Amino acid sequence: MTAASDASARPAPGAGPILRVAGLTGRITGQTVIEDVSFEVPATGVTALLGRNGVGKTSTIRSILGLIERTGSVELGGIRIDAMPTHRIVQFGVGYVPEDREVFAGLTVAENLRLAERDAAPRREFIARLFPDLVARRDQRAGTLSGGQQQMVSLARALVNENRLLLVDEPTKGLAPRIVDEVAAALGEAARTVPILLVEQNLHVIRALADRVVVLSGGRVVFAGAASELLDDEERVQRLLGVHDASEAA
Ligand SMILES: Nc1ncnc2c1ncn2[C@@H]1O[C@H](COP(=O)(O)OP(=O)(O)OP(=O)(O)O)[C@@H](O)[C@H]1O
């Protein structure tokens, strides 16, 4: 494992949740978009942040990163990060894969990855193993890649550094089913090395990846618990998420 510059501040593994959010209220142009949100993310596995469209999932992620105006406390490994500027939060070990797959369209795949490298020993071999397609396309301009391939670049950019937590926002949105499976498989592999807070709408993916779930409604947490506790309750899934579980219907 690589030693990040602030590794000495790293909590011992298993020492409790990696992320603790308490009383988080976020505002966009003066409008409250999440209110008094509290939840924890365990130090391993995938925690899915769920809810119907517009309930505040992206706003929660952006609040954690200090990208929107917010109050409340955010602890990473027991250390308060809510007073830090966003770039410091990222340096402290919070990786972010935004919803809109931010890649540099005019740069090659290799250049996109190189620009993301922050650690002294970036995890290039890990990335190459996880995304062999990107190795084959290393000299291709990112703007000419498919949506799924761009998502791989976006994920790879976050995974090349050793993070304490990864925030991944709707990585499978708009992708073809086969590509959804590929992205989910890569996320599953990644989750063996870093805890992930995942915003996801696809129940099939949630079922495959999530250990725990946090459900938002109207900007507030309405359920937090084991993924199976939610997913095994069809009525609750329908009520909280507004979707049927396609895997059950199949
Ligand atoms: N830039 C903005 N300006 C004003 N209101 C916004 C802005 N971005 C989000 N909102 C509002 O904040 C609320 C929460 O939006 P947010 O994107 O966090 O929800 P979400 O659960 O991620 O939605 P989706 O599933 O559709 O991505 C919504 O009511 C939305 O209209």
Automatic annotation (TrEMBL):
**Which InterPro entries does UniProt cross-reference here?**
AAA+_ATPase, ABC_transporter-like_ATP-bd, ABC_transporter-like_CS, BCAA_Transport_ATP-bd_LivF, P-loop_NTPase
Matching entries from Gene3D superfamilies are given as:
P-loop containing nucleotide triphosphate hydrolases
Q: Which biological process, per GO, is one annotated for this protein?
A: L-amino acid transport
Under SMART domains, the record lists: AAA
Q: Does the keyword Transport apply?
A: yes
UniProt keyword terms in alphabetical order: Amino-acid transport, ATP-binding, Nucleotide-binding, Transport
Question: GO molecular function terms here?
Answer: ATP binding; ATP hydrolysis activity; branched-chain amino acid transmembrane transporter activity
Q: Where is the ABC transporter domain?
A: 19-243
- Record SUPFAM superfamilies: P-loop containing nucleoside triphosphate hydrolases (SSF52540)
Family from the record: Belongs to the ABC transporter superfamily.
- Its name, as the record gives it, is ABC transporter ATP-binding protein
Q: Which organism is it from?
A: Agromyces tardus
